[in-house]
Amino acid sequence: MTGHTGDRRRIDTLRDLRSLTRRLTPSRREPPEALGREGEWLSIGLVCPYSFSRPGGVQNHVLGLASWLRSQGHVVHILGPGHPGRRTLESLGLPPECFTSTGMTVPVPANGSVARLGFGLGAATRVRAWLESQYFDVIHLHEPLTPSSSLLALWNADRPLVATFHSCFEDSAFADSVVLRAARRLAPSSVARIDEAVAVSQAAAGAARRYWQVDPAIIGNGVETGRLAACWAPPGRWRAGDHPRICFLGRFGEPRKGFALFTEVVRRVRRALPDLEAVVVGPGDPPADLEADLRIRFLGPLPDAERDAVLGRTDVYLAPNTGGESFGIVLVEAMAAGATVVASDLTGFREVVTDSRGVIGWLAPVGDVTALARGVNQALAGLGSDLQARGLRRARQFDWDTVGPLLVERYRAAMEDRSNR
After folding, report:
1. How many angstroms separate the Cα of 310 from the Cα of each of 233, 240, 320, 376?
2. Which of 39, 46, 41, 50 lies closest to 15 in space, CA to CA?
3. Whole-angstrom Cα distance, residue 78 to residue 76?
């Protein structure tokens, strides 16, 4: 790809001139040859509303998508608040100059979590400057109606627009919040600017239809399953060595992640398996009493490679979340790494861990500690011996080599849609 850098710069110059001409003569349509034929590389802008300084599911999805697109020869630029760090970008094969920050953020309670958003005059100025400094064949907005960089780009962009809806509100009090009601009043004129809509799951699609009146195509989040499958532990009684391991991954300080349920499950399972190792990966200050009383190991936030290694030596991945989850990306990662999944029966989770034969693992009613502990005990007893193979097959359906081409199809469809307006 690097051998074509000079040619691409010259093409980019021509595209800039063409874009300038189009802005000066707005009544003219893009010529058909500007659509990009199948197989041609595209210049793609990815916009995320959430701060990259605090890793999260949407941010990780955007970075993973950018990495895959670049590996396929496309030119990618990312816009969003905060910054993921130079080392993170380079680990994904992304040059530091491909990322533009919209600046600082403010924490906003939303959907059982805290979203760090950047909105205001400074952010708007940076968004407009980013749009004017690049030529984009298509712009991909994530959570397009979130009041941050995505909504600002939606209001200001004059290029074909693809929008991905990630959130699910049905199982959260946020569905009836003042913030969401206000956003819905502003939605119709903004949604009309979107050329192609995508949702990451049936749950997210249902929320998009109900609250934003759009009917999105369903394309799941992407995972690099090959990297995770390479972390599988050697065959043995327990994947971590001489004792069973249960793992919790995420922001354990957020109530909706269900960490209190995790600790109670650990207490109950240890009655039969006193040597059970409990491991927690994620940001936050660990409660000292839990480390001492329950012998829970808090590893903190880990780089991807170290986190993958933990999952690869985990017997049971427990996800006792209580709501607000539209897609179980960590469940996909756990299955790809060979761990057995025990999780709350949320719509987004059930969709991910179900194949043609049924549930791959154990699902328990939300908040039911007894059912969660029973699932863990059954998993550690060796029931469901085919779950690893089924889990890996299911996870591969969300591999970037499957998900990525589907998104590129949406990009080209958006370009076609815009040319026919």
Report:
1. 10, 9, 19, 18
2. 41
3. 7
CA distance 101 to 82: 6
Q: pTM for this structure?
A: 0.85
Write the Ramachandran bin of 314: left for phi over 0, alpha for psi from -120 to 50, otherwise beta: beta
Tokens matching residue 168: 């699910």
Q: Tokens standing for 396? A: 């591969």
Q: At what angle do helices 121-133 and 149-156 cross, to 10 degrees?
A: 50
The rounded average pLDDT for each run of 10 residues, N- to C-terminus, in the chain (421 residues) is: 46 44 33 50 96 90 97 97 95 96 81 74 94 96 92 94 86 53 67 94 91 93 96 90 95 91 97 96 84 84 93 98 89 97 96 96 97 97 89 97 98 93 73
Q: CA-to-CA distance for 68 and 222, rounded, in angstroms?
A: 9
pLDDT tens, 335-350?
A: 999 999 999 999 999 9
Tell me how crowded residue 113 is: count the other CB atoms within 10 A of its CB. 19
Over the stretch 296-340, which tens digit does the pLDDT of each residue have?
999 999 988 999 999 999 999 999 999 878 888 999 999 999 999
Contact by Cβ (8 Å): 199, 208: yes
* CATH 3.40.50.1110 corresponds to the domain 34-222+400-419: no
Between helices 149-156 and 178-191, what is the axis angle to 10°? 30
Maximum CA pair distance of the chain? 75
Q: Does domain 225-396 have CATH number 3.40.50.2000?
A: yes
* SS3 assignment, position 164: strand
All structural domains of the chain with their residue ranges: 34-222+400-419, 225-396
* Tokens standing for residue 20: 């300038």
Other CB atoms within a 10 A radius of the CB of residue 401 amount to: 14
Question: Residue 283 in contact with residue 300, Cβ under 8 Å?
Answer: yes
For residue range 93-106, list pLDDT tens digits in order: 999 999 999 998 77
